[in-house]
Amino acid sequence: MGALDIIAGIILIIVCAGIAVMILMQESPKGGIGALTGGDSYYNKNQGRTLDAVLGRWTKYFGIAFFVIVLAVSVVNIYFK
Fold first, then answer.
1. Please, is 62 exposed, middle or buried when counting C-beta atoms within 10 Å of its C-beta (0-12, 13-18, 19+)?
2. How far is CA 52 from each of CA 32, 45, 56, 76, rounded to the nearest angstrom?
3. Closest alpha carbon to 61 in 31, 33, 24, 22
4. φ, ψ dihedrals at 80, nearest 5°
5. So what's the pLDDT on residue 38?
6. pLDDT grade, residue 66 (50/70/90)?
7. What are the angstrom distances between the C-alpha of 80 and each of 5, 9, 37, 72, 76?
8. Alpha-carbon distance 43 to 18, whole Å?
9. What pTM, to 2 d.p., does this model score?
10. Residue 26: closest CA among 1, 2, 62, 80
11. Burial 13-39 (b: 16+ CB within 10 A, else e)
C-alpha cells in the first residue's frame, strides 16, 4: 500500500461518515392531512432554505465526491501499479 492508497482511504472514510450523518439527520417525509391540503404555504415558499433541503443538497455533494474518489483510486490502481 502506497501513500496515495492510505490518503484516499482516509478521505473515503471521512466522506462515508459524512454521508451517513447527513442521511441520519434528515427527517422522513411527512404525510397526513397536510399533504392533502397542500401544507403550509409559507413553508412551501421557502423549501429551498430549510434544514432538510440543505442536508439533501450536501448529501448529493458528498455522494458525488464519494463516486469521484472511488473512480479515481480505481483508475490509479489499475494503470499505475
1. buried
2. 19, 14, 6, 36
3. 22
4. -115, 15
5. 54
6. very high
7. 12, 17, 59, 11, 5
8. 27
9. 0.67
10. 62
11. eebeebbeebeeeeeeeeeeeeeeeee
Band of residue 28 on the pLDDT scale cut at 50, 70, 90 = confident
Instruction: Identify residue 24 by its one-letter amino acid code.
Output: L
Grid coordinates of 76 = 490509479
DSSP string, 12-65: HHHHHHHHHHHHHHSPPPP-SHHHHHT--HHHHHTGGGSHHHHHHHHHHHHHHH
pLDDT in tens, 10-26: 999 999 999 999 888 88
